[in-house]
Amino acid sequence: MDTMELKIQCNYCSQIYTVSNIKPKDFQSWSNGEGFIQDIMPYLSVSDRELLISRTCDNCWNTMYEPQSIKLDEKESKETKKSK
Hints:
Blueprint: E1 4-9, E2 16-22, H1 24-31, H2 37-40, H3 46-54, H4 58-64, H5 74-83
Antiparallel strand pairs: 1-2
């Protein structure tokens, strides 16, 4: 079976990445809106699928959406303890 590869530039860091082993029929189906990328191309990594969807590489994605720790200030912390 023939596959294709795409070179995609990240919108944020401008690095160019290659997504390989894409089945042309699957790419066309996804491009035509025939289903979700994870259903049509489950054989691609999550990072490669995200690169196709948003042109955001894994490093930039993780930088933008890293878990934020929520810190309560001392007053909120004390109020929470009082209400228990």
